[in-house]
Write a structure and sequence with these properties.
This protein is an alpha+beta fold and 325 residues long. 53% of the residues lie in helices and 14% in strands. An eight-stranded mixed sheet has the order 3-9-8-7-4-5-6-10, sandwiched between helices. Strands 1-2 form a two-stranded antiparallel sheet.
């Protein structure tokens, strides 16, 4: 019944018996199952390899991992593999259509932009791309911190990609550094080889896979509407250059962002630039991913530092002081 998960019938029988009677030893299990003791021990070894069993305090004590956890992980792995196979099938279908278009009677150009409507469609497409990535996956994450459940659900995909040798580079906004769930996720990702940097603000959500396909939002102001999947070589290359510019300007997650020669942090300099560009406090709060109260407090402190009596004057003085460069 569970062969698709890697459990042969004899191994499954040992696992089921241990779930019912975790106190049994090898000899007792062999007697109840009608197996040779060697077969039982081989089954125990298989269960340990599949991480469904842990060794107890003695050689004869075995601790089973609950089906919810152990079998759930195996099931998720199979689902990801099936998803990858499905995507490979779709890719093959696309390749066949492209050959027909090029060498058959049809002469139209293949579709290079597709629309994905709604968050669920985007999430499924991201899972497919992550499962089939070959070389690299680059991401922008602007706005507020992600929900913990979203980050936890992406962990199996991230781990499988890194184990395949895929480079994962992610750029967050500086405000993410204050979120404990994001810090835990970044620390976990870094132990597997993932790289993370932060910048004060990002233009939009973006994912680039293998320098072949990019996902960008239909509406940068409302990511819930969906995304555009772009396969135009020129557009993807331009987005890749954009990512590299932000990556070069970013600060590694574990580095401290100290004040510059003017005594300003990167966020303060970015905030003053946005203020001088005419953005409202509400717009600055959204763009930097910080609270409205923090924006107003920082603006007040910067105005005091500049000895400015108005926001307009603060912008002029900031420009003269070189803060907006």
């Amino acid at each position: 019944m569970l062969q698709i998960l890697g459990l042969e019938p004899d191994v499954e029988a040992v696992y089921r018996l241990l779930l019912e009677r975790p106190d049994l030893g090898v000899g007792q299990m062999a007697a109840l199952l009608g197996f040779q003791e060697e077969s039982v021990r081989n089954g125990l070894d298989e269960l340990a390899d599949l991480r469904l069993l842990r060794q107890g305090e003695s050689d004869e004590q075995f601790l089973t991992v609950s089906p919810e956890v152990g079998l759930g992980v195996l099931l998720s792995r199979i689902e990801l593999e099936l998803s990858a196979r499905q995507y490979q099938l779709e890719s093959a279908r696309t390749a066949v259509a492209s050959l027909i278009a090029r060498h058959g009677q049809q002469r139209h150009a293949p579709e290079i932009v597709q629309q994905l409507f709604g968050l669920e469609a985007v999430r499924l497409r991201l899972e497919q791309l992550a499962a089939t990535a070959r070389t690299e996956c680059l991401s922008f994450f602007p706005g507020g911190a992600q929900r913990p459940d979203v980050m936890n659900s992406s962990k199996p995909l991230d781990q499988m990609a890194l184990e395949r040798g895929v480079s994962l580079r992610t750029i967050y906004q500086d405000s993410f550094r204050n979120d404990s769930s994001t810090r835990d996720y970044v620390q976990w990702l870094s132990t597997l080889g993932g790289e993370t940097r932060t910048v004060p603000s990002l233009p939009m959500l973006m994912v680039i896979v293998d320098r072949e396909v990019a996902l960008v939002p239909l509406d940068p102001e409302d990511g819930r509407q969906g995304a555009l999947e772009v396969r135009s070589r020129g557009v993807v290359e331009a987005l890749h250059v954009l990512f590299e510019r932000f990556w070069d300007a970013g600060v590694a997650w574990y580095e401290q962002d100290g004040p510059d020669s003017a005594g300003l942090s990167r966020r303060e300099r970015e905030l003053m630039y946005l203020l001088a560009s005419g953005h409202t406090d509400e717009a600055i709060s959204k763009k930097l991913g910080i609270s409205l109260r923090t924006v107003r407090r920082t603006v007040s402190n910067l105005m005091a530092l500049l000895e400015a009596r108005s926001r307009f004057e603060a912008g002029v003085l900031a420009a003269r002081a070189g803060w907006l460069s």
